[in-house]
Amino acid sequence: MPKFKFNRLQWFVHIGSIIPFLVMLWDAFSNNLTVNPIQEITQRTGRTAIIWLVFSLACTPFNVIFGLRPFNQVRRPLGLYSAFYATLHVITFFVLDYGLNLKLIWQTIIEKPYILLGVTGFVILCILTFTSTKKSMQKLGKKWHQLHRLVYLAAIILLLHFFMALKFINALAITIAIILVILLLIRIPIIRKFFIKRQPAWSRTVNNYLTGRKKKTINSKIDNPAFK
Ligand code: HEM
Question: With contact defined as beta carbons under 8 Å apart, do 14 and 22 qualify?
Fold first, then answer.
């Protein structure tokens, strides 16, 4: 039996990330996917993919602003779940909706240029997914960080794809746009330094809760190397 050594935050992230998929399966089997199930699946998977992409981008700022280090551990899984939902979204479009009919797909791309933005964003997400392993990190060295900065480009391209796919701009699209701007601003070194200096005192308590660690005491079995 494989042993999972997840902390509270990791369990929360994994369970929370599988829920949209399970809800979609449940709705599919109980005929609850509206009168146009393919469109419903395309929209749900697309929305989940972009929301989870923003979640993964928010991990570093969470650490910078609030000193919540455990969020660094869930950045990769959140990114992988985003890629998972994006793959479902793309498969739904190409296979379920267009039956892999290349002529029809090409016609749609010409009519709806936002599809091309989706394809570009998806290609970047795939590159980032395949190079997200420790092995790739060691192999690419400094170049790995440069490559993984492309995630911001992907987020901007996919946000455009989102806006252009909508008939009416909705609250979710505006919220994601605002959050993305904030996340990009926090990357600016001066703003970053400002927040690092002002990390709140409660961050340690929250970190202990999220990782399931007990507070540091002299006799703590967790912190005492003799018990490790
Ligand atoms: C090959 C790549 C892609 C294709 C062909 C594609 C195709 C589409 C299509 C046709 C729609 C309109 C659905 C409808 O309203 O009927 C759509 C919407 C959307 N797509 Fe994509 N997409 C791609 C990649 C992505 C990726 C990678 C993401 C996010 C990570 C994404 C997120 C979205 C979102 C958020 C919507 C709007 C959903 C809504 O109406 O609420 N797409 N996409």
Answer: no
Q: Which two tokens stand for residue 127?
A: 């590159």
Domain range annotation of the chain:
8-227
Are 47 and 182 contacting, i.e. CB atoms less than 8 angstroms apart? Answer: no
Q: Is 41 in the pocket of ligand 1 (CB under 6 A)?
A: no
**Number of neighbouring beta carbons within 10 Å of residue 64:** 19
How far, in Å, from the CA of 14 to the mean position of ligand 1? 23
State both tokens at 201.
């005192």
- Token reading at 168: 């009416």
CA 186/CA 143 separation, integer angstroms:
22
For 135-168, write each residue's pLDDT tens digit.
999 999 999 999 999 999 999 999 999 999 999 9
Tell me if 9 sits within 8 A of 74, measured CB to CB: yes
Mean pLDDT of the chain: 92
Ligand 1 atom at shortest distance from the alpha carbon of 47: 35
Establish whether residue 217 lines the binding site of ligand 1, counting it when its CB lies within 6 angstroms of any ligand atom.
no
